[in-house]
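tool_call: predict_structure(chain=1)
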Amino acid sequence: MFLYIGGVPGVGKTTVINNIETKAIQEKIEIKKMVGAPILCKITGLRTIDELRRLPEEEREKLRPKMYDIIYDTLKQKSHILWIFDGHFCYFDWNGEKFGMRPIQSWDKELMIGIIVLTARPKTVLLRRTADRRLDRKLGIGFIKKEIEKEREIAISQSVTLNKPLIFLANENGDTEKNVQKIIQLIREWI
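tool_result:
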């Protein structure tokens, strides 16, 4: 089984998910994080996430089907674990014009327990991106607003298509612990 946690880059997904893993150990829930980037690095033979970020989005998009095959095999082999996916619903190219969507997988309906999208004000996302600059993170406030809206649209669409619960959680500064508690509560309700 898996829980998909989405949100734009810089919204704080990885921080929240890392804290969920720690809290889950305390509460004796077997949870592990699933991140696609290290799998893509392995597929391509790249050594670092920074090298992967230098690949154009079109190239990364071509590699994702193989990544999803590997993820599915892991889910099946370790089905006693609740996996938390740290991901996005949309991926913009470097120009910020074209975007790809997270494709619905044939196994999503069977294995996904729900969708959570972390949100934050565009200015908050901008400040976080400025503090943690990366090649694939745009810094324009207008682009960030577009990204947030696209992420929201696609998450809603996939939730409806898959008939899975969808929760949006504001993740402003200081909200991490509150969101960790809420997500642990939702996990208990959904499994």
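agent: The domain at 2-35+81-190 is CATH 3.40.50.300 (Rossmann fold). Proceeding to next step.
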